[in-house]
Amino acid sequence: MPTDLVLLSARLVDPVSGGPLEHTALAVEDGRIRALGDDRSMRALAGAATTVVDLKGAAVTPGLVDGHLHPVTGAELGHGLDLSRCADLDDVRAALAGAARPLAPGAWLHAWGLDPNAFGDLPLSNAPFEQVLDGIPAFLLLFDAHSAIASARALEIAGVDGPRDFEQASEIVCDDQGHPTGLLVEDAACEAVERAAPRPGFAERRDRLAASLRAMAAAGLTGGHVMDANGDSLALYADLDAAGELPLRLRVLPWCRPETGEDGLGELIERQGTGGRLWRTAGVKLFMDGTVDNGTAWLEHPDLHGESTRPFWPDPEAYTRAVARLHRAGVPTATHAIGDAAVRHVLDSVEKAIARDGSGVRHRVEHIETVPDDTLSRFAEVGVTASMQPTHCTDYTRADHTDNWSRRLGEERAARAWRCRDLWDAGATVVLGSDWPIAPYAPLGVLAGARHRRPSRDLTRPPHGPEQALTARRALLGMTVNPALATGEEDRVGRLLVGHRADLTVLADDPLTTPAEELADVPVLMTVVDGRTTHRHPGLS
């Protein structure tokens, strides 16, 4: 039978061995790798309808998978003002002024990527921006997406005029007189203002999402672990999939929060396995804390502002019971845990669930920004995946620890930043991702950051924690084999093996031999998902 796709004259990269396979070509049929061999034998499998591509020595890797991203959120934010390159308040004001000029009267200004380091020693508030905004309702999301700055007009429209109590750890920050400063901490407070802003319709959001996913495919991504299913995001994925416009394979984990309750947990369990050809609901995302930058992480000792002392889940034992119920039902969990106390509690909870109901469910911890030595080995002992985003470290912290994250933690804990290598050496399965839109989704940038640990905007600056850098082979494993291990799919995806899914990334140069500082600029020549070409570089004949 003729095959669907044949790739010739390729360097087939094996992340496990760390080198090229002996074969130089492969054939794809019905979404799977049908055969590996030399050019002559693979060409013989081609028929009149087969797509045959001569790669002229380009590198083929197993499809690159982002272990943590938010496509729908990112697609919506991407149509707002990007503040991520603003280094100080003057930069922010200039950007806001430029975005404000063309706005129609009464229109909202949405921005994202605001770095708290831009405030220097000033407290985070709307005060530095009120003059330039001049009555415009504005919602400025900070880079961590766990906090925002709302303008005075936005607060007024939303009816937010003082502090409020929330079921989860969340806060409308107020001054000594009880007036909101504009700083909104965590989801519930942000939603109190954000829901007052007009939102685009389904069709517009669908088009934005489709464009973002196409761009991800062009960057070399073949899949992603989606850490939310909020609003109508599942309907968006289903609509794109049904139309044949979904260019990535998505594994979606809806949220479970303190307010979810027993009935909500039951609904999450019932939802497992639903999906389409290229997406499915598989797992649940939980939160154990917030972020270091806004003082809502859960640390074993307070930060230097006296903050980050509470869990996001007001009753940590209720979280433990939720994990136990999900584990008993065979549902894998992925828990946002940034601080050392949060990470420890997640590991304890999973360990208790396994002790009661046995192993076999693959749980994860997301982010793991700072952990002490005695926590490292527990990931392997308990069997919990470490899902990490190295570009958060490289792009939002500094080697000299003068950034907001490091100053809050102090020297000892800042020196334990994103311990990718230590966790790997301790036997953990380390999965790499971007957390887009928190950081750029381009997978080559993530692989590069994991290796050089330098800020992507200026590679001449010193690395933060160079001893935690991963080798080229380990970084590639973190976006190919290890995502498959984390999801229990290592027998059918993640390697260039006969029978495995034909999810492939084709690069102009070998990611295992390209210097880390040059890797992010390597052209992506072709991306293949389920045997279907989702991106092809115009220069590829």
Automatic annotation (TrEMBL):
<feature type="domain" description="Amidohydrolase 3">
    <location>
        <begin position="52"/>
        <end position="534"/>
    </location>
</feature>
<protein>
    <recommendedName>
        <fullName>Amidohydrolase 3 domain-containing protein</fullName>
    </recommendedName>
</protein>
<dbReference type="Pfam" id="PF07969">
    <property type="entry name" value="Amidohydro_3"/>
</dbReference>
<dbReference type="InterPro" id="IPR033932">
    <property type="entry name" value="YtcJ-like"/>
</dbReference>
<dbReference type="InterPro" id="IPR032466">
    <property type="entry name" value="Metal_Hydrolase"/>
</dbReference>
<dbReference type="InterPro" id="IPR013108">
    <property type="entry name" value="Amidohydro_3"/>
</dbReference>
<dbReference type="GO" id="GO:0016810">
    <property type="term" value="F:hydrolase activity, acting on carbon-nitrogen (but not peptide) bonds"/>
</dbReference>
<dbReference type="InterPro" id="IPR011059">
    <property type="entry name" value="Metal-dep_hydrolase_composite"/>
</dbReference>
